[in-house]
Amino acid sequence: MTEASTAYQAVPTPDERERLQRTWYWYDWANSAYATTVAAVLISPYLTAVAKEAACPGIADGQTCHADLDVLGVGIAPGSLAPFTITVSTLLSAVVLIFVGAIADRSPRPTRLLGGFAWAGALTACLMFFITGTNWQLGVALIIVSNLCFGASLIVYDALLVRLAPPDDRDRVSSRGWAFGYLGGGILLAVNLAIISLRDSLGISEGMSVRISLLSAGLWWAAFTIIPVLGLRSVTGTVATPVERSAGVVGGSLAQLADTFRELRRFPQTLTFLLAYLFFNDGIQTVVTSASLYGKEELGFDDTQLIVTILLVQFVAFGGALLFGRLAGSYGATRLVLSGLALWVVVVIAAFFLPEKAFGLWLVLGVGIGIVLGGTQALSRSLYSQLIPRGRESEFFSLYQAMERGTSWFGTLLFGLVYQLAHSYRLSIIALILLFAIGGVLLARCDVREGIRAAGNPVPRVV
């Protein structure tokens, strides 16, 4: 028997497989606390407020700061600091996470890596409690490190999907994982909404309420990660690798990484999908990470209204992910992702024309985002899992994860540059249509069935 033929560890029974899948869902529940409370809602507006205080001491909420921060000798507008920070973290991720994927494929115990990255990221999220006053530098450093750890843990987590779900079941399992994550993230966000809304009754300042919420996300992430780390410890690494084991984990991983880029040219449909995902996921992630900044700075909503919005999105996305997963069984994941991208364009256009302080219309927009958010992300993950060769799941998912949620780079760069030049978040948000359009065109040109066959995987009944 060859190494390649042992790439998948057989799950003993259908009941055991179902149990492992339920355990796997818990990491979506765990990390969504960071993705929602920290990345999507609080950290960008909070870091912007800290940066504005540093550049323009005593500035009132809602006022525009026209002074720049000195960042390594470069003048940066306080309103651009958060999106530029996310951009930097993603550029680092594009390099670091690929090496993580190569190492993860050679690790016999992938759940240990999952736990290590997750708990390191949770620690940095907890340390965000100490971002106060004008200390924007600490905020920048913690965002970069936490995003790297977040992305690294998701490489290992996503790769486990291939080992726990057969091809025809993967859309359902991936969608349930995303739905479970939105539910968990939504519950913690509801708690944080109560803390921020009742801050006067609790005798704490607005800044302290935000810092407590950031701390709670780190603690939640750390605590619930224990369940998948312990529950999936029986799932071993694939060991299917084209390089000699004598090269060691690091040396062998570097050789495997070089081979991956050579091999990727042999899978043109996989490469086309990755390019499509690079663009349309950048658009999705930029909308998600910048929505709170757009809502607060451009439309004049307060933190409570923003948390209510994201909370609504979370629970609608729970249903949206399950709906898309069910529809994929009849219409195929490819068609549904393309339909979702068309709806994202509608959302961006609506956001551009939304009047200031129109909170009711803002909530309607949030419902639209929730419907397509979970579905497009869950089905993109399961669709890509069909296009990667066996035994190299983590390595190929590292390429995917470099462009995953919270790590878009071109979108945040575009968003920040437009604001830097025009000082208008409306122009920044409308520019994102370009990313959805390019991604949609590339995905429409991807022959998914041919890509699955070329990767040596069985073709599902509907794709």
Automatic annotation (TrEMBL):
Write down the SUPFAM superfamilies for this protein, in alphabetical order.
Answer: MFS general substrate transporter
Q: Where are the transmembrane segments?
A: 81-101, 113-132, 138-157, 178-198, 210-232, 271-294, 306-324, 336-354, 360-379, 399-419, 425-444
- The protein's superkingdom reads Bacteria
Enumerate the spans annotated as Major facilitator superfamily (MFS) profile domain.
269-463
Main location, first listed in the record: membrane
MF term (GO), any: transmembrane transporter activity
The family database entries (InterPro entries) matched by this protein are listed as: Atg22-like, ATG22/LtaA_families, MFS_dom, MFS_trans_sf
Show the GO cellular component annotation of the record: plasma membrane
- Cleavable signal peptide: none
Q: What does the UniProt keyword field contain?
A: Membrane, Transmembrane, Transmembrane helix, Transport
- Please report the record's description of how this protein sits within the membrane: Multi-pass membrane protein
A Pfam family found in this protein is ATG22
Question: Which cellular compartments is it found in?
Answer: Cell membrane
- PANTHER family reported for this sequence: AUTOPHAGY-RELATED PROTEIN 22
Q: Protein name, please?
A: MFS transporter
- Annotated organism of origin: Luteipulveratus halotolerans
Phylogenetic placement of the source organism: Bacteria, Bacillati, Actinomycetota, Actinomycetes, Micrococcales
